[in-house]
Design goal:
Layout (H helix, E strand, L loop, with lengths): L11 E2 L2 H14 L3 H11 L1 E2 L1 H7 L15
């Protein structure tokens, strides 16, 4: 992800409800969670911990044990 330009003014999202609305809007346009993160941080100044709390955790695919016969 490129570094954000500190001289470019971006809106700040601090309210959890505003942040949730922005995430919902970006999820429709993004193909992956990484793309949501990228679009969000390029468009807004956000608290990354607050974003992580709202984003669903990506769990690894479970590996099932073979059944015994």
């Amino acid at each position: 992800m490129p570094n954000a330009d500190p001289l470019l003014p971006r809106p700040t999202l601090v309210s959890p409800s505003h942040l949730a609305r922005a995430l919902d809007a970006l999820r429709g346009d993004a193909a992956s969670t990484a793309e949501v993160w990228q679009k969000l941080t390029q468009t807004y100044t956000v608290d990354l911990d607050a974003v992580a709390a709202l984003m669903p955790a990506e769990e690894p695919e479970p590996v099932w044990l073979a059944t015994r016969r």
